[in-house]
Model the fold of this input.
Amino acid sequence: MGKSNWKKPPKEWKAKTRAAHVGYDPFLSMGAVRPPIFAVSTFSTEDAEKLEHMFRRSYGFETPLSPDEEWPIYTRVSNPNFIMLCDRIQCLEQGAEDPTAVYFPSGLSAIFTTVLTLCKPGDTLIFGYPVYGGTDHLLRHHVPERLGINVVPVDATDLNQVEDALKKHADTVKMLFIETPANPSLAMVDIQKVADLIHQNSDGLLVVDNTFMSPILQHPFMHSADIVVYSGTKSIGGHSDLIAGFVIDRDKRRAFRVQSVRVSTGPTPSAFDAWLLFRSMDTLEERVLKAQKNAKKIARFLKEHNKIERVIYPDFYDKKSSEWEIFQKQCEGPGSMITFDPKGGKKEAYTILNSLHIFGLAVSLGGVESLAESPWFHTHMDVSDEDKRKSRFNPQTVRLSVGIEDADDLCNDLDQALAKI
Done:
């Protein structure tokens, strides 16, 4: 089918090459070197029998399609831009034989649909805090109140807490959800050890939110995770111009179930956004590594500043700590997120935020531009004060998402803002 390797790249190809070439065959689009946008609601098929066959596949009555059999019938079900995008992102995941991606209109819809697919009323879902504030609200409120699922929060950095929860609910546990590094404290969770605990003590699945690190800097499947989720809005999209989410499952049939529930419940991504995501993945590695290089320099600057009480960045973990051990084992770099506490409280934090010129005062992360916000009062406002403190961040905590601007300019921007307190 056109150029070879457009679906199955050679194993020796590195991530940068995979992200730039997998998923698109120019000779299926009249030789166009970039894919067109399939801005269309429905698709024709050659005969009624094939259309029936495609519907049976789409709604789960038959086995999943192999890549070369995929054929769109209706954009809520699928679209060529979705197919190309999923082929590309799933090829970046290491540690699973044949991972399968499902594309969503947001990260939260990806998480919710996964829970809806794999859990039923009376089941137990354990989640490790801290997590993104929107995820925390979804899991603490909507999932138990509207779906009747028993939700148990634990400190996932404490393996004893995880094990105790798993043993207490062993008969009903269907899912353990973790985010690592955690938002916003950058707490490290040992994916392999948590995976071993859930697989040894229950029939449940380990779901890992890998948004902070992206497919470039961490590979949860290599540490026995069952499912990986992303907010595609962040590093994968990378330009703050779209909202998206992904579920990537090491089990094709289970991914097919998640896809079928997405189709049946209606959250439909945009073909244009899929096209933008596909474009962005060409530069994913370069953007992630450049932002990380900037973050390293900024973190060192903050650590040496006399108006800063605490800087949290993986490079600064105590070399004798479990966090350092986990970081060295499962991450390929420290990433581009920095959390710091200035001296003082909310007033001082807000003075810094209001004085920045290059850093945008905005939530989100992973874009080409640098952003700053207050987790306590912004992204995690709905989380109780007690749980915020358990998650090791404070009212004065500032979270930075470092972009790809000039690192010296970013340090100078922070310096002039800190001079105001």
